[in-house]
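Shipment paperwork, digital attachment
Item: protein structure file
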Amino acid sequence: MNNFALREHRHGLLELAALALPLLWVVGCSSASSGHAPGVAGGQTLTPGITNFPLAYIKRPVLTKDIDVRDLITSITGGDLYIRDQANAAGAEVNVTGSITKGIGDVRDIDVSPDGTAIVFSLRLPLNPNKPNTDVTQPNWHIYKYDATTKTVAQLTNDGITAGHDVGARYLPDGRIVFSSSRQLATQSILLDEGRPQYQAQTDNRQQSIFLLHVMNGDGSNQHQISFNTNHDFAPSVLGNGQVIFSRWEPTNGDQISLYRANPNGTGLELYYGANSHATGANIAGTNNNVIQFLNAREVANGKLVAIVRPFLGTQLGGDIVQINAEGFVENHQPATPGGAAGTAQSSATVLGVTTDANMPSMGGRFASVFPLYDGTNRMLVSWSPCLVLDATVTPNATHLCTASNTAGANVTLAPPQYTLWIYDMDKGTLGPVLSADLGTMVVEPVILQPRKPAPATLVDAAPAPGQAATMATAGVGLLDISSVYDVDGVDTAMPNIAAVADPAQPGFYSRPYRFIRVVKSVEIPGKTVRKINNSAFGPAGMGMREILGYAPIQPDGSVQIQVPAHVPFTIDIVDVNTKRTIAFARHTSWLQLLPGETKTCNGCHSTAKNTSHGRKGLTAAVNPGAPTTGSPFPNTNPAIASSTNAGATMAQTLSLSTCTANGTTPKGATTPCSQILSTDVVYDGIWTVGTTPPQPDRPFSYTYSGTAGLSESPPTNSNCVPWSAQCRITIHYDMDPVKQLFLQSVWSLAGRANVVNGVMTSTTCTVCHNPVNAMKMVQLPQGQLDLTATASNVDPTVVTSYEQLLFAHNAQTLNMGVLQDLLVPAPGPPDPVTGLPTTIKVPVSLAPPMTAGSAAVSTAFFRMFDGSLMTRYSITQVTCLPRSCD
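Attachment content:
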């Protein structure tokens, strides 16, 4: 076998050219059994050690159009699975799927069983060439199995019961299979529990159904969903400890794909690597800050990961292979343990000098796939293409290897990639050819049917333990346990510290900034063929639709322990005494999940300003000291809770022991509900100061939907909210609610202001003054240039005027002879076409929206009109905006 070592980037590329250029003359000739592609050697064999094992790979037509990595449906027509009995070019190759695809289907995502006797892959049946590739009537991707012993193919998934695409299958150590699917089995079941019809939820951009992780038996039975997200979870693989690592697409977290991990039953899901390491891609400029995505990660023998990194688009389905020390780092420069060793986590796994610039040549070529060899060597089976440019100055056009001269300038045209099979030795830095491709085809995703040694650990899906875990599993909930929201990246941020704000004898107890936690879930969006929804329904901030699951007090030490519905993606907001999300905490952009009976613990929160990651266990040490002693109350607190106190326990943990049964429910006859149970209303009962004599009043208070005077609508809750259960949903519409529940437009018609008219104090509403027509039916200029009426907006008739003017910029108006018109002011115009002198034109005055969508805390100027901090000519007699509904 001809090996070449690229020891140094610049000279290594010259060595590559020296090897490959003489091979160009064999294009179209018959040499090796699988032909030749431009610039690639053929007829080579693997080094000894694995030639006795079968080799599998995919061969498909050369790429003519790039595919976005977020597009998990589009296929390249003409792909098939090929098998060779031995991993070398001399043996005959067998197309094992041609009779199924008939040459117009496709195959992807090959993986080997733990014992090396079988492979799983995804196959798409023949497509209708007269319809778009992504048409919903085209065949779905499904998972198949090839048995190397019997040399047979069997289909494992189908559309018999629940339809969907199935991709990315990987074997678990016990023979089960984890895969990514748009079936959304648990998600669709939850839709029924919510009283909605079943449908496949769509990604945030509404381009595709969401692909989420599922697990099934090796024969395709017992399929069940294990991950919950509002966008794709895909490309799973198995770590040595038995956990599943996968790529998660998060548009709300910077539109990026990072690496997450979870147990095979879906518990313990957490960030594994890369949420803040995307600007690390190698580039031509040498700044190495290209934005890349982490794809198809696999663990190698040394415990590190290898992954393909590339932009979403523009690199011909390929990128660089990076090696990542994910056990030691959660980010490229952030250790995974407190005080961990400094350094960097990731580096290119090869010395070829691959770059990741979109739509630009990579002189080191590109990798389409990587498969580590588990044979005791530090080698990888890869699909690699050299850098190729198209010469359009000759007829027919010619393909050449990239050189410094033919890649210079602005008119470089990249030729289609010629991905073929190579073996890369990371110890020696050598790349040796294995198989070439027939002209016009490419070979990708090679695997060796070889047992993985050492075999990954097997993690058994254990049933929830008897007691609270089992009770929660039956109720369809899990437990979220936060040590302290004042713990920010392992630093006590309470003023002056957690112990002080937890002590009623200290003034900080009464001015605690973080008072309640709000739990919010996403609303699954149906496809456009199921229901057409106008884009205005997703809000100006593009946050999609959300529903509130409930509220709970944050205990004085910042701790939280609450039961949260399982099998739903949820997030949390930290809110103040007025239930406005605090500016100190940015919106939690990563979706959390709990499995039934699972307990998820975390130390606290994190600061986005530091650009550090959180959400992975063990990154920082907890700073909440907890109870000082067992059996004694927290300093100066209610002594009745003392009997439940354990040394080191948080206030939330202690309170739950005092108010909840061992099963996590409210004791029969108890007047205080179990503190773990969420509430639809915001309630502070002052339980920590009951029976004590605090230095200042600690008054209980509540904000209730049903207790809002003047609103005729019923609370925006469903029948599962009293008492609260996992199916409780709080849904607040802006305009008219379809079932006559609370909607925000009704607030502006609520009598709540006292206005002096002709010396008489008269109760009035917002829409009396913020209206283009007065009580006498005369046209008027709306007060403050703000129209709060429910008429259809003249900008977007799908929303009401108040919504448009509160949340979007709009033009100032003026009253001209009884008619409202846009206010026009002079502004410099274009030069006079004849004289060239300056001109003046009239332009409208644009007013900024008085509210910031998605943040009541930032909408300070607006809400000061209601909280009494801004004196106006009106006497505010009632708060007319429910604070919890405005964020």
